[in-house]
What we know:
Blueprint: H1 5-21, H2 25-48, H3 53-85, H4 93-106, H5 111-119, E1 124-126, E2 129-132, E3 144-146, E4 153-155, E5 161-162, H6 164-172, H7 176-188
Antiparallel strand pairs: 1-2, 2-3, 3-4, 4-5
The structure holds zinc ion.
Amino acid sequence: MSASPADLGRARGSAHRFSLRNTPACDLLAELDERLNDLASYEADLDASVFADGNADRLRGDIAYERHHVELIVDEMERRERARAFGYQSPNGLREQALAERFAAAKAIDCAEVMRTETCQAGKPVGERTLFTCPFHPDDTPSLTCYPGEGGWYCFSCRRGGDAVKLVAEIKSVGAVEALRFLEVVLIGAA
Ligand SMILES: [Zn+2]
């Protein structure tokens, strides 16, 4: 028994979906951009109605094909967004090792700088430390202390503390991986 065209279409769809799962985010965006451009140009051609009927049918087929792939890419991007919300990166061992290295590197991020950016406080310098009003509760005295280097932060009122990742995670109520990503993109300016 041979496979029907519908079966082949489904197989191709799932193969493409599988390959999308291994596509880096930047390539995913590039492919989305390219397909949206193609889609826009096909739709413009169709709107212009300068084609014979046969060509118009082919254009409608091309448009449906591009739309299908745009949907697959958007689905994959949404899937990754949901995965990130749960602090999940990838089952790939190499990537997890890279993630551990990124967390280690983020420990060097100046927590005082994070506090200034995220809470719009200037901070009060005391020697090498900087004191801030704690954003996690009403705080008359500046209870949150940021230490230089990898010293991190600690609040003497609520006893919360940690590194820059933990600080962003607490302020934004997000997972550790999302907090790490935010620090890399917003504070370090990584791609
Ligand atoms: Zn506190």
